[in-house]
């Protein structure tokens, strides 16, 4: 029997609610499959931990996480703590040392979900955004001087390395190659940013040479927003820098019907450290504790987790169960215009899993 250890970290806001739902669904997946077991360990790191200990996670936090096969993460961020502290204190403090440099964000219009795009049928929007997750605009390089004085100065430097760009391009081309259309769009802004983004383009062209069966094109990020809205059918796999992909992936989530559905995986492709799986939506304090958070993003990311572990049949089964549930408007949470609760959606997905006959 294969067995995996999963670190479950709800974090802040609705994070603990959706991670609890995700753990329930993953347990149902393992039971239904019968070929593997999952052992969960809960981690209480996040803003409450910070209020008690002055840090978002213990000093040996990353070392503790290395012992796991994967991390299921909820959200981090609280209204009373500056966002850059919570983000750099937990999420980026995990992603960066574990070198989860490929952030993967699939977008599809699931059955029963309405896209705000008129005339776009479900199958016409099927994308995967690959986000560079270790450097670029999020490198943390920069600083402030003369604080509080009229001559105050502040910089955020976008750092791109040849090795960093090469590895994310290879990951994206490989992913594009594995999808039926074998088509990659490289997002850039090399018209205005004339150093790092020009190198980004050059490396894309070099790496393209290693993948002769993948067709690719290049798109300036501003024009990309229009293409996503006006010609979604012309896109498949997309690779972009850290900040560009951050912005484009929110647009993608909205076009697919709700941020409540959008999953993400922070992948260490070499598997030298565990990868981390999370819903994109964040802490959502306006609905915290109400029991109405949409758990679908967490289920989808749980499916990505299973696939990463090599449990593809279980991952497919989970996605099918999710699609069966989204197809029923009576099981839509308020973000989708429905009245269902987190618990009702979770029970429905677990029931669909138990009934799955494949
Ligand atoms: C995301 C989020 C984060 C990011 C926020 C919470 C800093 O928007 O995962 O897309 O920008 O990376
Ligand atoms: Mg974002």
Please explain how this structure is put together:
This protein is an alpha/beta fold and 358 residues long. It folds into two domains: 194 residues, Isopropylmalate Dehydrogenase, CATH 3.40.718.10; 142 residues, Isopropylmalate Dehydrogenase (3-Layer(aba) Sandwich). It is 39% helix and 23% strand. A ten-stranded mixed sheet has the order 2-1-3-12-11-4-5-10-8-9, with helices on both faces. Strands 6-7 form a two-stranded antiparallel sheet. Helix 1 packs across helix 9, helix 1 crosses helix 10 and helix 9 packs antiparallel against helix 10. The structure holds 3-isopropylmalic acid and magnesium ion (MG). The site of magnesium ion has 2 residues, from helix 8.
Structure described in brief:
Helix content is 39%, strand content 23%.
Number of strands: 12
The CATH homologous superfamily of the largest domain corresponds to Isopropylmalate Dehydrogenase
- Mean pLDDT equals 96
**Distinct small molecules bound, one entry per kind:** 3-isopropylmalic acid, magnesium ion
Strand content: 15-25%
Please tell me the total number of domains: 2
CATH class of the largest domain: Alpha Beta
**Shape type:** globular
Total number of helical segments? 11
Report the helical percentage.
25-40%
* Spatial extent as radius of gyration: 20 Å
Largest sheet: number of strands, sense, barrel closure:
10 strands, mixed
User: What's the assembly state of these chains?
Assistant: single chain
């Amino acid at each position: 029997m294969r067995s995996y250890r999963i670190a479950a970290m709800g974090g802040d806001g609705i994070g603990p609610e959706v991670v609890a739902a995700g753990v329930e669904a993953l347990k149902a997946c393992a039971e239904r499959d019968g070929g593997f077991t999952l052992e969960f360990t809960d981690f209480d790191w996040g803003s409450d931990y910070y209020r008690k200990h002055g840090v978002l996670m213990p000093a040996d936090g990353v070392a503790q996480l290395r012992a796991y096969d994967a991390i299921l993460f909820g959200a981090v961020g609280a209204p009373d703590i500056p966002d850059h502290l919570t983000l750099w204190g937990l999420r980026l403090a995990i992603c960066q040392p574990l070198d989860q440099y490929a952030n993967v964000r699939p977008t599809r219009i699931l059955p029963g979900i309405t896209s705000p795009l008129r005339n776009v049928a479900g199958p016409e929007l099927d994308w995967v955004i690959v986000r560079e997750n270790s450097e670029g605009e999020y490198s943390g390089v920069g600083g402030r001087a003369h604080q509080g004085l009229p001559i105050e100065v502040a910089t955020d430097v976008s750092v791109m390395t040849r090795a960093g760009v090469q590895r994310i391009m290879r990951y994206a081309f490989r992913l594009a190659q594995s999808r039926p259309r074998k088509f990659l769009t490289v997002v850039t802004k090399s018209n205005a940013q004339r150093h790092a983004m020009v190198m980004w383009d050059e490396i894309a062209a070099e790496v393209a040479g290693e993948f002769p069966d993948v067709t690719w094109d290049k798109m300036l990020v501003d024009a990309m927003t229009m293409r996503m809205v006006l010609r979604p059918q012309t896109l498949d796999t997309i690779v972009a820098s850290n900040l560009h992909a951050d912005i484009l992936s929110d647009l993608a989530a909205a076009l697919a019907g709700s941020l409540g559905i959008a999953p993400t995986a922070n992948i260490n492709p070499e598997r030298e450290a565990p990868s981390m799986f999370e819903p994109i939506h964040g802490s959502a304090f306006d609905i915290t504790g109400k029991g109405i958070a949409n758990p679908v993003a967490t289920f989808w990311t749980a499916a990505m987790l299973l696939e990463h572990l090599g449990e593809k049949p279980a991952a497919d089964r989970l996605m099918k169960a999710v699609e069966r549930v989204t197809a029923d408007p009576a099981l839509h949470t308020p973000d989708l215009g429905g009245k269902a609760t987190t618990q009702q959606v979770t029970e429905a997905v677990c029931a669909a899993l138990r009934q799955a006959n494949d």
